[in-house]
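For the sake of transparency, this paper describes our internal protein records without simplification. The tokens are whole numbers drawn from a learned vocabulary of local backbone shapes. One such record is reproduced below, unchanged from the form in which we store it.

. . .
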Amino acid sequence: MYNIFAASRLVVQFVLGAAVATNCALVLVSLVLTAILTDALRLKRLWRICENMSSSCPSGKRLRVLVDMDGVLADFEGGFLKKYRARYPDEPFISLEDRRGFWVSTQYGQLRSDLCDKAISIWQSKDFFIELEPLPGGVEAVKDMANMDNTDVFICTSPIKHYKHCPYEKYAWVEKHFGHDFLEQVILTRDKTVITGDILIDDKPDILGAESKPTWEHILFTACHNKHLSISPFQRRLLSWSDDWKAILDSKRQ
């Protein structure tokens, strides 16, 4: 009789132990699954954060973009023609549609020799550069560029040799349209080939200087004087500031 009761007690203890063990195992499994699900949710949230960051920030290398001023940001051609006709109303003039060649004075000199100096006198005059109107979309595009991550933007412009008014007015024009802080981003140079950059957006077809192989790629900005020119297959144009300038920057980050 004793053995039967003893055996029964052992069976009960075994069953109870198994039940406890089973419950512990279930609790343990539950805890493990909870931890896994929690980590999965955390990973999912982190993944979404990374995706949002990657979509809002440019990928690839840091870029230095150089942007010309006259004919790219400021309407040099339109400003010149307006002031030339106001000062010399009886002299012949060249319409913007008929402009050919980068140098305005050269084409006017071909029209009549004395008109070369008259043309030069316009942009040597006080208030010529400060009163130039911005080209459509240029100021906004450069501001957008400057706010992009991994992008340094500089206005790279060549002052005329008759320096009485030009350098000051170029700085004043930038301050007027971009604000005082953007003056830190102005580069005045007679030779753009010695300036280091990844891209130079400029309306001058041929940019020559001390460096035969500048670091930057020249993006030809379309203007009235160069729109008729054929460019090499290796050169690129920016037709206007409504053109896809962001695609050009993205291509340089690859």
